[in-house]
């Protein structure tokens, strides 16, 4: 009896020491639209536009992020470009409460079941009204069946929005917040740098992230989407600008370019051409391949990024970036305890 009681006590002790399963929520739908009305950014205490590009025509406030969608002819050359994605997404991410001592930061103990179809939105009906070849008005159609190759790549990470609420996380699943990203990049180096952003916010209190596509005017643009579907342009690269503020309020800037080369495969459909040699290793393959994410090679001058995208950033940001001799050569280090959540590949540092 003593042995049996001891075993029972041991089982209870072990069970009580195991982490509780995250509370799971399912993203609902209101005839394809999000049923969750969030307060605006100011009400939530965010200033998403503080360091956002000054090209703000048609910008929308989604509470946890701000976005500008690509228009029918954004470059004004008289030729319809219709990329079917955002020009940029900007958001302020506030850090988690410090648990104190040497304890590690913990993300909210919740998770979501993503909506099967991403949420519909107003504001881009020109994608079919100005293109008679389009007979299917779901952008989802263009992504269907290619998830192992091209992802609906978030520009604001859903887990970052989860710090506000699970409903906010659901609301990141909208095409004002996504462009086609190669699966190996999206689930690898891009995800790791999102983990890095979360760690920075915990360490310094707040971080601003601005991300978007880069299209090379001298390189043909490939698109996903079959006949009758909305053609969604595949960016030649993606950019991410990370901004913090020093004790004096002066911004600190790091700008990154994630190249995304692609070509038409034998089936006539676009496929990524980068490999693990380019750092495209998925998080779940890091230990097996003994890979280390090193983002220094992706650092670029903010001025170069502006030239490539045609975007104009606030003067304070441009000045700060130009004055920092390490802006294109090093990342800010962050102690292990600030890396919260399921860090990509378990790599809680940056070389």
UniProtKB/TrEMBL annotation:
Gene Ontology molecular-function annotations: endonuclease activity; hydrolase activity; metal ion binding; nucleic acid binding
Residues at the active site: 154 (proton acceptor)
Designated name of the protein: DNA/RNA non-specific endonuclease
Signal peptide: 1-20
InterPro entries reported for this sequence: DNA/RNA_non-sp_Endonuclease_sf (IPR044929), Endo_G_ENPP1-like_dom (IPR001604), ENPP1-3/EXOG-like_nuc-like (IPR020821), His-Me_finger_sf (IPR044925), Non-specific_endonuclease (IPR040255)
Residues where Mg(2+) binds: 186
Pfam family, one: Endonuclease_NS
Coiled coil: none
Keywords, sorted A to Z: Endonuclease, Hydrolase, Metal-binding, Nuclease, Signal
Domain DNA/RNA non-specific endonuclease/pyrophosphatase/phosphodiesterase: 61-320
Domain named ENPP1-3/EXOG-like endonuclease/phosphodiesterase: residues: 80-289
Organism taxonomic ancestry: Bacteria, Pseudomonadati, Pseudomonadota, Alphaproteobacteria, Kordiimonadales
């Amino acid at each position: 009896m003593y042995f049996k009681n001891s075993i029972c006590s041991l089982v209870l002790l072990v069970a009580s020491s195991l982490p509780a399963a995250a509370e799971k929520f399912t993203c609902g739908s209101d005839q394809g639209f999000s049923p969750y009305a969030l307060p605006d950014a100011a009400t939530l205490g965010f200033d998403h536009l503080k360091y956002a590009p000054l090209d703000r025509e048609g910008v929308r406030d989604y509470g946890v992020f701000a976005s500008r969608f690509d228009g029918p002819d954004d470059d004004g050359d008289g030729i319809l470009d219709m990329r079917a994605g955002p020009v940029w997404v900007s958001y302020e991410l506030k850090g988690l409460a410090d648990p104190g001592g040497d304890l590690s930061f913990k993300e909210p103990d919740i998770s979501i079941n993503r909506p099967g179809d991403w949420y519909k939105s107003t504001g881009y009906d020109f994608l079919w009204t100005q293109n008679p070849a389009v007979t299917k008005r779901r952008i989802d159609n263009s992504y269907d069946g290619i998830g192992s190759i091209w992802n609906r790549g978030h520009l604001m990470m859903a887990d970052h929005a989860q710090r506000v609420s699970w409903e906010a996380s659901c609301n990141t699943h909208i095409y004002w917040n996504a462009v086609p990203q190669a699966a190996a990049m999206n689930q690898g180096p891009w995800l790791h740098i999102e983990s890095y952003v979360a760690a920075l916010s915990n360490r310094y209190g707040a971080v601003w992230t601005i991300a978007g596509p880069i299209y090379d005017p001298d390189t043909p643009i490939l698109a996903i989407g079959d006949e009758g579907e909305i053609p969604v342009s595949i960016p030649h690269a993606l950019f991410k600008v990370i901004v913090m503020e020093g004790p004096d309020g002066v911004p600190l800037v790091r700008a990154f370019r994630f190249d995304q080369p692609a070509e038409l495969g034998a089936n006539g459909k676009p496929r990524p051409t980068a490999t693990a040699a380019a750092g495209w290793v998925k998080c779940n393959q890091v230990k097996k391949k003994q890979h280390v994410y090193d983002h220094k090679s992706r650092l670029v001058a903010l001025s170069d990024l502006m030239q490539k995208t045609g975007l104009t950033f606030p003067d304070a940001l441009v000045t700060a970036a130009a004055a920092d001799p390490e802006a294109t050569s090093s990342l800010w280090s962050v102690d292990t305890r600030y890396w919260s959540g399921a860090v990509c590949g378990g790599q809680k540092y940056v070389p």
